[in-house]
User: Fold this.
Amino acid sequence: MDFLLSEDERRFQESVSEFAKRHIEPRWIEIDEKGRIPLELIKRMGDQGLFAIPVPDKYGGMGGTVLMAALAIEEIAYHDPAVAVAVYALLNNGWPLALSLFGSEAAKQEILPKVASGDAFFGIGSTEPQGGSDVAGARTVARRSGNKWVVNGEKTYISGVREIQELPAGGGFFLVSKAESAEYGHRNMVDFALLPKWNGKMRDGWKPTVYDDIGRHGLSTGGFKLEDFEVEDDLRIGDVGRGFYLLMEGFNIARVLVAAATIGSARWALDRGAEWLRSRKLFQGRPLASFEGISFRFAELYAELEAAKYFVYRAAWMIDKTYLENPPRFKPKDLNVPVSLAKMKGPETATRIYEEVLKWLGAYGYTKESAVYRGWLGTFSYTIGAEGTQNIMRYIIARDVIGSEYVSHTG
Amino acid sequence: MRVLAYADNRSWAAQLASAADALGGDAAVFVPGRELADDAAKLYSEVFFSGLGPFEPVSYSAAFSEAARSFKPDLALLPCTNKGRSIAGLYSSAAGIRSATDVISLSARAGDSSITVRRLVYGGRAEAEFLMSAPAAVCVVQGSYPERGPRGGPGQVHEVPAPDPASSVDFKPKRREGVQPEEAEVVVVAGRGIRSKEDLELVKELARALGGAWSVTRPLAADQGWADSWVGISGLVVSPKLYIGVGVSGQPHHMMGARGSKIIVAINKDPGAPIFEECDYGIVGDLYAVVPELLKLLGGKDRGL
Amino acid sequence: MKILVAVKPTFDIGQLKFEKDGTPMLDACPVSLGEADRCALEEAMRIKERLGATVAAATVGSSEAHYKAIRDSYAMGADEGYLVKADDPWKLDALSVASAIARVAAATGPYDLVLTGSGAGDTHASVIGPMIAGILGIPLIAGVDRLEVRGPGVVAGTCKLEDGSYTYEAKTPAVVTVTSEANAPRIPNLRAILRSKGMPIREMSAGELGIDLRRLEPLSVRKYEIKRKRIIYKAEDQKGAAEASAKLLAALRSEGVLS
Assistant:
């Protein structure tokens, strides 16, 4: 067992760190304050090869691994603690990989190169007004009509709703829906690459709205109604009836990347905290770090962050050995617990670290000038949900470890 | 010990003269022009000069080598500046001798012809002590040796023929407004704590009030484009009586450019800024509050030394 | 055109720590391709992209960091890589390094340009370029912010020196040293990094190049002890600023640096 990153992984990590320091760090606060990521930065990230990292070369991806994507997202988040840019990047790494694994050849050839280059966005469209965690309760329905599908329904709390309208090529979502009827259940679902704007043209039947979030302002959250929105059959991702299962596999990939973003942001907060503990002196010149009530708490948080980090790396490594190796070392269901551990620990550790660092900073931390609160609000959103709630992570771990016959409440 | 110095201005001629004194023995200097030769003759007993055009390293070092062929020095002493280092590199490789840059002190070892050299390494964070055997060449850091005053009668002046430059030179001299940082007794430097190009005015005013020069740290010049030159190891190296860093954090590369200052003052709102480890006096506070107060107190009556 | 870029891994001195007795902890200090060297590689790549050129990178030293420096040069787009083997490379004297590079140039050239980074980072670097020019007997343009190829066999570089701006024009072959202000070096993407892993590095020995590599053993290397007074005043508000300013000026007067 070699716990160190390989030389390529380290070199790649350094290259992303340098890119982020040069192009993202000087602007992260403005991105959070103004509520948008400049399109020029997105294009630059595309040129640098920071999207579609694990997607094969032949589709315009970097031919890398999910571990490399996680390292990249962690570094981006370190330089963008409010995480909007990091989340933009993770969505455009995780869902393109899912498309690459499960989509049709035509869809991959058409969509992936433009996402890799930064000209288009590809995220996730799963949550609906009546529920996010209860995917089987989805009411969006797709009905087959010749060589296309006609989709009706509504999605809420979707990232990227504004961005796909502004990007040159546009973009869309890995969309989950029911097939033919909205009846409750997970066996009658189907996934699509739904592209409300593509090659610069808006498609009819997509009615978006943008929300006003309390944090992570740089990336839009919004919703959309689908009114007889037409999707070609070659944009269908996987077989009818497989929609729920493929979505869960996609979530496993995205969840690891979400956790990577939160630990990158948390590492930034802890580093600022450590700097403060060294330089802030009180009670006649004693540094704050010399008070054990403070330094012991630092040690505990450091331990949690390290643990969360290794959960992320381990889960990413296992995903690589499941999807990017032949023969695969693991099966998709083997990923459930390792991924849930990462997604459970990452965001929660991050918010705990932010809370504590803000307390160390005292009243200064409470001011907007300190900027630390932006990371707190950004990472907090990942304890609420996004690719899976914290309670769903607990549910998955309990179910798979104790046994689903005891834990399951879906029968 | 026979020492041949290279100097392209009066200050360096005077600094290297004291360095040569510290080594004992005979010292001569090479200067790249007749005008400097007369000044140099007040400091050295032997002066070589060549009627060279604007600085071009190959011809300058060839002329210096010609002087060295005549004087046969054990040690060549050059300024640790961009020009000095180029000449040192060309001269020492042509002569096949050892060289050292960033030298802060020299002493001759009694008995043999070796020199104990102390130089700054690792970006100025450490000092290394070496033994170098003559003949050798060293580049001395600005301010390591004081400027020695004139002594004795005028030295002998020899002209060395000027070699042709290896490249054509198009020289645009710097527009010199007011005192230059390398020559000033007081230097006030603006760092990243200064928020805008307009705010540089605060620093310039403080420099004026103290009768000194102003400059910036590298990011303000190279990244922001607020100035043409900066204080630092890759830019200007200054050794004034008083250095004041306004909103300067004190990164090693910058401090290497200011270390020769007699008194270093830091004004910064970050109590953890590295400059507070390397200052004589510091104020932890907002420069936008402190500098106006200093200006008020200095207003009118006090002008620097 | 053929361009040789002399590169070197340098310590990230901002992260250098010291033992209690002042000895630098070099083993624990991160090392990477120096910023100015990367700017030199970037200039070479820009010439390659604009006019066509083969770019070779060369380094002297057998540490892992030296091999990585060549791989990183490949990731930036270099076509060939040469490594002169040398144990204990950090103690090599500048003239030995310059001689080795000059011999590599002679053995694998002819080159139109020899580039290297100048200044900052490591204090060696500002003499290596001039030494190479001295050994090869070719023109030197040292410390350029801007480099252009003005025509076949002619290059020009602009240098910002202490007293003003110098633009030199020289016939090739020439040595040009490049400052870290010359450009923003490209950051290799993952594809370039992965590709660089498989590219061979041609190793050479001092013996085959016909040179002696000499090392300089220091008598001591110690942390630079800052001998400053460190008298700090606090200015928490406007009133504090006024008080601190008054105290500072009084102190400076007593130091004799203010009248």
